[in-house]
Design a protein that fits this description.
Blueprint lengths: L2 E8 L3 H16 L6 E5 L4 H7 L5 H8 L3 E6 L15 H11 L3 E7 L12 H4 L3 E7 L28 H16 L4 E6 L5 H14 L6 E6 H10 L6 E4 L1 H15 L6 E5 L5 E5 L16 H13 L4 H16 L2 E2 L11 E2 L2 H18 L1
Parallel strand pairs: 1-2, 1-3, 3-10, 5-8, 6-7, 6-8, 11-12
Antiparallel strand pairs: 4-5, 4-9, 9-10
Family: Belongs to the isocitrate and isopropylmalate dehydrogenases family. LeuB type 1 subfamily.
Function: Catalyzes the oxidation of 3-carboxy-2-hydroxy-4-methylpentanoate (3-isopropylmalate) to 3-carboxy-4-methyl-2-oxopentanoate. The product decarboxylates to 4-methyl-2 oxopentanoate.
EC number: 1.1.1.85
Length: about 375
């Protein structure tokens, strides 16, 4: 049976990094017996230019008939004019809602070859391997804001709202993930201030009763932000609400040395997921071959793991990325001035990953 992957290149460096990821996926998949079809659609600023909307209906329809979605990035100064009623980012929020993508998984892993690329002490970032599970379709980002009354308004209100069901499903996702890892869940909230956090903590405790094998710890978000930098190796699976997860996952990127090394998976209740790098569209380097494709390539590995259930192939990609970095190949964002470093452009980095996959396949 043919599987369908919808590719949403988006804006800025999005087309470059998604092209790299598709090349890697084709290289891996042609060695398997699974037939996969790639279909490209527009989202974000590119969709505004073509259709006048950041999320055309034909893009939604195609995504709903897909087994997985691969996204590049959206946004850029071209679409930031105050007169514009539509923003590229509305396309991303819209596809999350349309596809029911309520859980964002962001793995944070130390690459031994990149330890010196992190501004954090080597002793702090070595042997780090955790996953942030972020609720993705509720909270402040989807609340009802005040009516906009111009620059001189005296008061504004943003609404943070969650239902029990919204919290329950993402917490359940985190516990199931922890069962496949080191069986440790850290739930992050602000229960000393927010009523939504108090209900969050209650639901985590109720869920924990059904998972007696898992060690559960509650942590306030301000404390977690400090511990994420000073003692990140303590964590296994972190689960938190939308805004906290957004902030903490970007903070965690300094552990890896660059947002260019941060993949992510946004999942719904089924196997369908949207896979994208954590970085933005970086319009200042678009088209120059300077984009780091590794976060998108690693996101493609997550696509194979979670949506296509191809664990072996997902691991092949991840091991290949380690191999390439161990051999000193670096994109511009990963330079640390070490002697063995070889700076390469986007296309060559992709070539190196594919070569490493091929070498491992021959060795087997």
């Amino acid at each position: 049976m043919t599987k369908t992957i919808t590719v949403l290149p988006g804006d800025g460096i999005g087309p470059e990094v998604t092209e790299s990821a598709v090349r890697v996926l084709r290289s891996v998949l042609e060695k398997s017996r699974i037939d996969v079809r790639f279909v490209e659609k527009k989202i974000g600023g590119a969709a505004i230019d073509a259709y006048g909307t950041p999320l055309p209906q034909e893009t939604i329809d195609q995504c709903k008939n897909s087994d997985a979605l691969l996204l590049g990035a959206v946004g850029g100064p071209k679409w930031n004019e105050k007169s514009m009623k539509r923003r590229p980012e509305q396309g991303l929020l819209g596809i999350r809602k349309a596809m029911g993508l309520f859980a964002n998984l962001r793995p944070v892993e130390t690459f031994q070859a990149l330890v010196d690329a992190s501004p954090i002490k080597r002793s702090f970032v070595e042997n780090v391997d955790f996953v942030i599970v972020r609720e993705l379709t509720g909270g402040l980002y989807f609340g009802r804001p005040s009516e906009r009354r111009g620059p001189n308004q005296e008061q504004v209100v943003d609404t943070l709202a969650y239902s029990r069901q919204e919290i329950q499903r993402v917490v359940e996702k985190a516990f199931r993930l922890a069962m496949k890892r080191r069986k440790k869940v850290t739930s992050i909230d602000k229960a000393n201030v927010l009523e939504s956090s108090r209900m969050w903590r209650e639901i985590v405790d109720l869920t924990a009763e059904r998972y007696p094998e898992i060690a559960v710890n509650h942590q306030l978000v301000d404390s977690a932000a400090m511990q994420l930098i000073t003692n990140p190796s303590q964590f296994d699976v972190l689960v938190t609400e939308n805004m906290f997860g957004d902030i903490l996952s970007d903070e965690a990127s300094v552990i890896t040395g660059s947002l260019g090394m941060m993949p992510s998976a946004s999942l719904n209740a089924d196997k369908v997921g949207l896979y994208e790098p954590a970085h933005g569209s970086a319009p200042d380097i678009a088209g120059q071959g300077k984009a780091n494709p590794l976060a998108t390539i690693l996101s493609a590995a997550l696509l194979l793991r979670y949506s296509l259930e191809m664990e072996c192939e997902a691991s092949q990609i991840e091991r290949a990325v380690h191999d390439v970095l161990d051999h000193g190949y670096r994109t511009y964002d990963l330079q640390t001035a070490q002697q063995n470093e070889k700076t390469v452009k986007t296309e060559e980095m992709t070539d190196r990953v594919i070569d490493a996959i091929d070498r491992r396949a021959v060795a087997q």
